[in-house]
Amino acid sequence: PILYSYFRSSCSWRVRIALALKGISYDLVPVNLIKDGGQQFSAEFKALNPMQQVPALKIDGIILSQSLAIINYLEETHPNPRLLPQDPKKRAQVRMIADHIASGIQPLQNLSVLKQMGEKKMEWAQNCIASGFQALEQILQHTAGRYCVGDEVSLADLCLVPQVANAERFKVDMGPYPTITRINKALLELEAFKISHPSQQPDTPPELRA
């Protein structure tokens, strides 16, 4: 497999965590979203992903984009360890939380949106994340065990950790979200989350390396 990724992209990070958890080795091709006016806009990358976004994954003779679609494919082709619970209610909760982050928070503070916001981009990102986290904190109080849903790592957790990193980058006050903070801390102790971290990638700038 070949993963087209940007070290800081939260969507790419979700996929890197899934690949690490499932023990799938891959080659990484960095796509710098800032340099050269954004390498995702090159004709070469547009041929891979017409949406001109990372991640994209070349695997089993196909090219997949959209992080949740990629992770669902990995789940179906490499079922262990599972990222979707067997219990239908828990599985629905996992998908709900993943969608809450992947559709309801992350796109609103994405690079392409922030570019449009000009000087207000920090305030905009903080507001989008805070309103999403207020709802998420409430949801997690009903679903969480050690992790987002019970005590097993799931697709929801793969979405949570990169989104908390975004919140920290945009200086969101995490005080009101103790459940999110606790789960994030527990997840960052796991090897798959450590090795997929933005500070550990081949394209991480030297000053941001851990």
From TrEMBL:
Its EC number is 2.5.1.18, 5.2.1.2. It comes from the Eukaryota. SUPFAM superfamilies: GST C-terminal domain-like, Thioredoxin-like. Residues 1-82 form the GST N-terminal domain. It is found in: Cytoplasm. Pfam families: GST_C_3 (PF14497), GST_N_2 (PF13409). InterPro entries: Glutathione-S-Trfase_C-like, Glutathione-S-Trfase_C_sf, Glutathione_S-Trfase, Glutathione_S-Trfase_N, GST_C, GST_Zeta, GST_Zeta_C, GST_Zeta_N. GO terms for cellular component: mitochondrion. One of its GO terms (biological process) is L-tyrosine catabolic process. Its cofactor is glutathione. CDD domains: GST_C_Zeta, GST_N_Zeta. It catalyses: RX + glutathione = an S-substituted glutathione + a halide anion + H(+); 4-maleylacetoacetate = 4-fumarylacetoacetate. One of its GO terms (molecular function) is glutathione transferase activity. Belongs to the GST superfamily. Zeta family. This is Maleylacetoacetate isomerase. It comes from Platysteira castanea.
